[in-house]
Amino acid sequence: MVRKKVNYQFIADECARKRTFKKRKIGLLKKASELQTLCGVETCAIFSNSTDSPLEVWPSPHDAYQVVERFRNLAPEKQTYNMMDGENLLQKNITIMKGKLVTEEKKNQGLRIEQFMRKLLIDESLDHVSSLVDLKDLNLLLDDSIELVEKRVEDLEHSSSNPVAGGNKSV
């Protein structure tokens, strides 16, 4: 059975409001307890029902005080490090997605150039290439490949205990 969408607005009926508060408080305490048990983090919850009732503290006032004091003793930048409003959260998600987009675009460009290179190997001609961008990308790829080959040759020459001979020795 699917729950209906909750309309987030003040509950006018006092009896319904108290009942909702009690149910949601129990759910929130259960989640805090699960976080504490499963993740090994310090949690506390402080509830203020109304002006005439005392504060409700979980797990105990002493434990909650220790958690709050530990938080207050942090540097201000560490206190607010993960605090975000909706706008900041969306901005962070946009930044992450832009980074992923750039990564995917680079990967796609690499695949496009690789496909282009394979086509060149088959055709053995540049006559079908009409895009200056494709030719420049190919040039960059070939330059990078040449540098990698030269570096590998140097590495093999330096690491090899037998120097590469200029010719064969005859007996």
TrEMBL record:
It comes from the Eukaryota. Keywords: DNA-binding, Nucleus, Transcription, Transcription regulation. The keyword Zinc does not apply. The keyword 4Fe-4S does not apply. Pfam families: SRF-TF. GO terms for biological process: positive regulation of transcription by RNA polymerase II. It is found in: Nucleus. One of its GO terms (molecular function) is DNA-binding transcription factor activity, RNA polymerase II-specific. Its main location: nucleus. SMART domains: MADS. One of its GO terms (cellular component) is nucleus. InterPro entries: SRF-like_MADS-box (IPR033897), TF_MADSbox (IPR002100), TF_MADSbox_sf (IPR036879). Residues 1-51 form the MADS-box domain. This is MADS-box domain-containing protein.
